[in-house]
Write a structure and sequence with these properties.
Number of helices: 1
Largest sheet: 2 strands, antiparallel
Order of helices and strands: HEEEE
Shape: elongated
Number of domains: 2
Radius of gyration: 16 Å
Strand content: 5-15%
Strand order of the largest sheet: 1-2
Helix content: 10-25%
Amino acid sequence: MGITTRALLREKGTPYDELGLADPQWADAQLMDFMLAHPILINRPVVVTPLGTRLCRPSEVVLDILPNPQQGAFTKEDGEKVIDDKGNRV
């Protein structure tokens, strides 16, 4: 994915602070163990396509790894339009 293990950690609404995960003492393997024990710590969505794997935050990042171009409108969860009805980026 081209990101660090720490970049995959979700902080809000998780036991991140309780577990002291901001402490740099934790190695990548240990952070992964925490994510396996507490899946809510995994930032998402992670999308896998033949063109790659990405953490799709913001959601329009998915457009970069789709095997075929977006054919219609694409609107983010907050209502922001990213692609118009003709398939053009806004």
